């Protein structure tokens, strides 16, 4: 599944038409799906359909016709001047005997529902004048709103605040990225019959979902033992951050690692899981770490000033590595690029800001672009830019002229915004690396599982170790097919 921009979806529409698929069928399916979802959520209430001049308005006109056909009370308010498929939809509606009032005549009616089909993904700037006032009038009415594809006005202000958004054909950026996602309310994704080849576009970001993540789950053989299913070395810790390496170790164990060794400064009181091997060190050096048998390393969690030394010592092990927190320095990343090891780095926006030398606010506004910039600056390293949602990027060293691979996570929730969550994620990814997954596979599956565990454990006051404890349930549900992605109907 891909994440579409407005331009990418227009190109998909054009490919479908070029293949011989009539665009009018797409509009017919879109309107019918929107009407159906509205009735499922708000059956028994009259519907006011607000339609613009473009194809989104045409979807609304089709929806109004189906609502009337199903015997549902509906009032239609539309702009004048539809062309193409939207004009055909208007004529079909009139043929059914429905009246179309001008948009200026709309007034909120008690106990009704608004179907917002004013503007879709083609909006080129903020709404002004009459349409800006209409959007504000809808928002102030207090009526529930169902948006067709996108709440009108997004990604600008003012925009409709919807209770339900029926996404059509594919998810758009606004469906996943905040603050726009908050305007969509509940999101359901509906097929409109577009040929799969028309939607296929590997240059777009992948949306991490159960369908693509389930095949990546590592198999556990019947003759498994702790040395066969992946051994992880966690290197981190400082006097003020003794919990960080412990949480990473817990995340690794709960993701299936057979053995976890925690290396930390000897002057720290670190309490890793009882099952972990402890390795207190007087200093970070390659010789001491070399004695640990491990297939993957997670380094930097809570290491403070020792993060660079720990990461450079771990580099000499030649193992797949997760670099987090205090290991995220330019010197370290450049050394790992030169070494060519499978490596995953997991910065939050503040750490990415330091690496890219741009304000963290700019990264928060454009996380995909920031992750891509990091991947291009450090080719071969998989970038996991943590946030809501987390985004991933990877520029393979063997393909420097190709655009980086991009992915956006769909699992997780705001209750995970607490200390230690990133440490658990580092352990999860390290365990998957130790199990034999590539860096790109381990990062994508690890991020999705981490968010899914957060969804299963979600509650006010959620703690990082509780997410770690939910990881086995997340893996089991994904394996058994019991996961429901957020855009699927209830």
From TrEMBL:
It comes from the Bacteria. It catalyses: (6R)-NADPHX = (6S)-NADPHX; (6S)-NADHX + ADP = AMP + phosphate + NADH + H(+); (6S)-NADPHX + ADP = AMP + phosphate + NADPH + H(+); (6R)-NADHX = (6S)-NADHX. AMP binds at residues 386-390, 422. SUPFAM superfamilies: Ribokinase-like (SSF53613), YjeF N-terminal domain-like (SSF64153). Its EC number is 4.2.1.136, 5.1.99.6. The keyword Iron-sulfur does not apply. It holds the Pfam family Carb_kinase. (6S)-NADPHX binds at residues 55-59, 120-126, 131, 149, 244, 300, 348, 423. Binds 1 potassium ion per subunit. Residues 209-478 form the YjeF C-terminal domain. GO terms for biological process: metabolite repair; nicotinamide nucleotide metabolic process. Keywords: ATP-binding, Isomerase, Kinase, Lyase, Metal-binding, Multifunctional enzyme, NAD, NADP, Nucleotide-binding, Potassium, Transferase. One of its GO terms (molecular function) is kinase activity. Bifunctional enzyme that catalyzes the epimerization of the S- and R-forms of NAD(P)HX and the dehydration of the S-form of NAD(P)HX at the expense of ADP, which is converted to AMP. This allows the repair of both epimers of NAD(P)HX, a damaged form of NAD(P)H that is a result of enzymatic or heat-dependent hydration. Catalyzes the epimerization of the S- and R-forms of NAD(P)HX, a damaged form of NAD(P)H that is a result of enzymatic or heat-dependent hydration. This is a prerequisite for the S-specific NAD(P)H-hydrate dehydratase to allow the repair of both epimers of NAD(P)HX. Homotetramer. This is Bifunctional NAD(P)H-hydrate repair enzyme. The gene is nnrD.
